Amino acid sequence: MIKGSCLCQSVQYSISGAVGDIIHCHCETCRKAHASAFSSVSRVEDGDFTMTHGQEMLKCYESSPGKFRYFCRVCGSQIYAKRENTQHVILRLGTLDDDPEAKEVGHIWVSDKARWYTVTGDLPQHDTFN
């Protein structure tokens, strides 16, 4: 069982299955939503993701058509995103309390990255969503 929570601990969740490969997204909406150079995310199947505390504390924002970002209304921590007609959530890995035992596989939307940030390392880089 993998657990996670927001900064203020108002929202808590657990994951009963595997966390997918780790992707670092550099798109403008991820950068602005997280106030960071990129967002590290993984896919988690809906049936493996359970809100264990504070679901009523979640607010959501439709950041692009059909994509909703869920965050704590107290501290603002983004917990996950959900696209319409999918069977998984896009987990925001910064909220994990435990090791997801997943591997990094690449950077996406590098064409949209912050001009002040240089991507380094050996992970594959993709100009868009691959």
From TrEMBL:
<dbReference type="InterPro" id="IPR006913">
    <property type="entry name" value="CENP-V/GFA"/>
</dbReference>
<dbReference type="InterPro" id="IPR011057">
    <property type="entry name" value="Mss4-like_sf"/>
</dbReference>
<dbReference type="GO" id="GO:0046872">
    <property type="term" value="F:metal ion binding"/>
</dbReference>
<dbReference type="Pfam" id="PF04828">
    <property type="entry name" value="GFA"/>
</dbReference>
<keyword id="KW-0479">Metal-binding</keyword>
<comment type="similarity">
    <text>Belongs to the Gfa family.</text>
</comment>
<dbReference type="GO" id="GO:0016846">
    <property type="term" value="F:carbon-sulfur lyase activity"/>
</dbReference>
<protein>
    <recommendedName>
        <fullName>CENP-V/GFA domain-containing protein</fullName>
    </recommendedName>
</protein>
<keyword id="KW-0862">Zinc</keyword>
<feature type="domain" description="CENP-V/GFA">
    <location>
        <begin position="2"/>
        <end position="110"/>
    </location>
</feature>
<keyword id="KW-0456">Lyase</keyword>
